[in-house]
Amino acid sequence: MAKAPLATGKFLLIFISWWAIWAFLQVSLLIGFGLAPTTALSDSLVSNTLVALCCGFISNNMQYYLPKKERYWYILFISLGLSGIILLACKAILVPLLGAKAGFIDYGQFFSRSWAVRYDIVFLQVGCMSILSVLWYASEEEQENRQRRNDAERLSKEAELFKLRQQLAPHFLFNSLNSISALIGSQPEQARKMIQQLSDFLRGNLKKEDQQWVPLSEELQYLELYLDIEKVRFGHRLSTEVSCEEDCLGLRLPPMLLQPIVENAIKFGLYDTTDAVTITIRARKIEGGYVRIDVVNPFDPETSRPKKGTGFGLTSIQRRLYLLFARPDLLETHVENDLFTTTVKIPQQIQQSPQSPQSSQSPQSPQSPQSQQLP
Amino acid sequence: MNNANIPPASIKAIIIDDEPLARMIVREYLGAYPEVTIVQECSDGFEGIKAIQQHHPDLIFLDIQMPKINGFEMLELVEEPPAVIFTTAFDEYAIRAFENHAVDYLLKPFNKERFDKALRKWMEKRPAAAQSTGSHTGAGSSARDGSEANRHHDADSEARPPAGSTEALLETAAQSPAQQHRIVVKTGGKIKIIPLEDIHFLEAADDYVKIHTHQGAFLKNRTMSFFEHALDPTQFVRTHRSYILNIQQVTRIDPYEKDSHLCILQSGAQVPVSKAGYVKLKAVLGL
Fold it and tell me: What are the two backbone dihedrals, phi and then psi, of residue A67, each rounded to the nearest 5 degrees?
């Protein structure tokens, strides 16, 4: 429920000031017409108090009933009606009170002659207040709606990001366990090593859910762990080349962003091929404050056909990058002969200290700070 | 391995899995069954098809996720599919649909007990003919004699042709999301993978369905209703008893005789549209 305008101190002050000005103007006007100062003062106080009460009533009640846009003409009738009531009340109070007093002018007659002007003024005052109230409440409502929409959007964005991070392939897990099971009989040492690798991998996966941006070096180590496990599963068929320029190791990026890209490379480069394959990961710093990471995998043109645009299963990463940076152009793919290259560029936040996680961005500002700092 | 060295009455098995360690564990578990001979191990579906044609195994252990063609697609291309035990990391929900059709499925990782159960289940259900040849060596082997008689009895009552069950399996498999983006056909001994977007239309041709693509037409030993159910109904419409067309290929629909229409495709081909087919086509195209 929106707050009534007169319930806020600032507006109450403005309202009282206006009332005082009106009352003062009316006193001067009535004296000018030849009424005694006390009569003029009483007249002005009574009629303006009635108008003020009425205005307060209107602005308060519109809290509970606000006419729809197509029914704004109701306001006109309400104002006309209320003005009439005010005028009648004025007459009922003032004429018996002041009419008895002697003066240059008979007050009863004066009131009768001035009723049209009075009605005009009262109607203007009440009408203005009604319109102001309607505008006030409409804008309050609009603001509330916007807030609600923002909240809903933020929640769904967070949920979506969470979901996109979450997709650890169950195939990978169960197939790895199966490999361990096979190794236990013949090569228990190797089995133990693989259990260790798988545990480290899973631990990293769990830890990263609540962590925000991570250093590239850590992410690459984690990917190597993943690739090592795949090497055990597929034996000599998989080899990897991971290279990173010295000055990149400390750069940061959102967690679990490279993981699905490499998983995708493995899926098409390793699971869907039969020959020996090499998966290459290269990271370097490029101009404009980005870290650029290329993941290269071979693919079998006979069975899989990279689509134009993002190709393969990269849409969720594209979506995630869009949610994080509000940009659609950070993920690119490229096909040359039988090699598929995925390139991702991560904007580096210059002002971001290692401790300030990206979560601090979302609740207040709908736009992420990253996108505002982009060149 | 050489076919001639195998005693004729033993059970021939093939393991098809792309991971060496996964094949190793099946081999290890099979070590406890002297009557089962592993005639070959294959690391993809193409090899699997060749091996099956060459050795005519009684039983195959088949992984589903494999390079080139998956386990289901491989089965589709084998003319007389042997009995199948799936070994897969597919989640249980996805594989449960096949429970009634396959001999059994083993979810990776599986233990020896589970493996034994699957193998015994198959041995008990083997058709009587195969069983009787098998029992000659079985009788000579050892302490298995007692159970052999029981098994024989069970086999008579529960025997069912493995080919029939595999047929039903393939129907289910074709509807799984894993293979809704391509069709695998065999043409002149070679295997061809046709992405669905390359298909112009399908045409009934006796016991086959003729798949027209920009690379020519391919025959597949399936029925029209099989494809009608397996293909995405928002992309493929059965416009006629004998025709299913890819709506992406439609350029024009012309009236033709009474109550019927002709659909002109991008390739210039003209596909008949029946009265009922026209209604369906209009609904899918949003006309």
Answer: -65, 145
Residue pair B263/B273 in contact by the 8 Å Cβ criterion = yes
Which residue out of B21, B25, B49, B115 would a mutagenesis test of the A interface target, given it has the greatest number of A Cβ atoms within 10 Å? B21
The residue ranking higher by pLDDT, A101 or A323, is: A323
Q: Which residues of chain A make contact with B69, given a CB cutoff of 8 A?
A: 303
pLDDT, greater one: B23 or A257? B23
Residues of B whose CB is below 8 A from A183: 21
Alpha-carbon gap, residue A344 to A234, rounded angstroms: 27
Could B195 and A183 be called an inter-chain contact, meaning their C-beta atoms sit closer than 8 Å? no
Q: Which residue matches tokens 């003020």?
A: A52
**CA distance linking residue B280 with residue B274, whole number of Å:** 10
The count of CB pairs under 8 A between chains A and B is 69
For residues A197 and A191, is the Cβ–Cβ distance under 8 A? no
Distance separating alpha carbons of residues B33 and B52, to the nearest angstrom = 21
Q: Which residues contact A293 (CB under 8 A, 6 or more apart)?
A: A258, A261, A281, A282, A283, A343, A344, A345, A346
What is the nearest CA distance from A270 to chain B, expressed in angstroms? 8
First to last CA, chain B: 61
Residues A228-271 have pLDDT tens digits of: 999 999 888 999 999 988 888 888 888 778 888 898 888 888 88
DSSP 3-state percent helix, strand, coil across chain B (nearest 5): 40, 30, 30
d(CA A320, nearest CA chain B) in Å: 24
Q: Which residues of A328-351 are buried (b: 16+ CB within 10 A; e: fewer)?
A: eebbbbeeeeeebbbbbbbbbbee
Cβ atoms of residues B108 and B87 within 8 Å: yes
Handedness of CA A181, A182, A183, A186 (dihedral sign): positive
Partners of A175 on chain B (C-beta within 8 Å) are: 19, 22, 89, 108
ipTM over 0.90: no
Among the ranges A231-235, B57-61, B66-70, which has the highest mean pLDDT value?
Answer: B57-61
Question: Which chain A residues are within 8 Å of B193, Cβ to Cβ?
Answer: 302-303
**Structure tokens belonging to residue A241:** 């080349």
For A221, A262, A282, the CA distances from A296, given in Å and listed in that order, are: 18, 9, 9
User: Which of residues 14 through 73 in chain B touch A, CB cutoff 8 A?
Assistant: 18-22, 24-25, 28, 43-44, 65, 67-69
What value does the mean pLDDT of chain A take?
A: 81
> What letter would DSSP give residue A253?
E
Taking CB atoms and an 8 Å cutoff, what residues of chain B touch A186? 24, 28
Residues in contact with B186: Cβ distance below 8 Å, sequence separation at least 6, in sequence order: B77, B192
Q: How far apart are CA A260 and CA A266, in angstroms?
A: 10
| Bond preceding residue A188 cis, omega within 30 of 0 | no
Output b/e per residue, B59-95; b: 16+ Cβ within 10 A.
Answer: bbbbbbbbbbbbbbbbbbbbeebbbbbbbbbbeeeeb
Q: Tell me the per-residue pLDDT of A262-316, one tens digit each, with 9 for 90 and over.
A: 988 888 888 888 889 999 999 998 888 889 999 999 988 877 766 555 555 677 7
Closest CA to B79 of B181, B220, B223: B220
Give pLDDT tens digits for B133-191: 444 443 333 434 444 444 444 433 333 344 445 666 666 666 555 456 788 888 877 88
